[in-house]
Specification:
six-stranded antiparallel beta sheet, extended
Length: 122
């Protein structure tokens, strides 16, 4: 674990993969995911979820890989044209400063998918 200023984490979040931030960190990949797995709906047929943004980065000073993640906070809002939309605050803007990032292992691999267009002979 390492603590870095929140404004630096925000710069890393906004950067594109391969960008170098403050001559120290390289932004790797990142994306959105949902917290949890399958959740049953409550008695009103409503379920809850928490969108999370997670990304990885590399510290050029020592070669260590880190990741940062934050759940987005729900922002009440209503658009009569889109009544089923949910609104969330941008990640890495309202949090503890300094922000904790955690060491991780970064591996890239290729995945090959083969789709059979005919049944194989038995």
């Amino acid at each position: 674990m390492k603590k870095v200023p929140l404004d630096l984490v925000y710069k890393m979040y906004k950067a594109k993969p391969g960008d170098i931030i403050d001559n120290t960190y390289v932004r790797m990949h990142g994306g959105w995911l949902l917290e949890g797995g399958v959740r049953p709906a409550d008695s009103n047929k409503v379920f809850s979820f928490a969108p999370i943004y997670q990304f990885t980065l590399k510290d050029l000073s020592d070669g260590t890989y880190y990741y940062a993640a934050q759940t987005c906070h729900y922002q009440p809002g209503y658009n009569p044209n889109q009544p089923h939309d949910a609104y969330f605050l941008e990640p890495f803007v309202q949090s503890m400063d300094p922000f904790e990032i955690y060491t991780c292992e970064f591996k890239e691999m290729s995945v090959i998918t083969v789709v059979a267009t005919e049944d194989p002979p038995v």
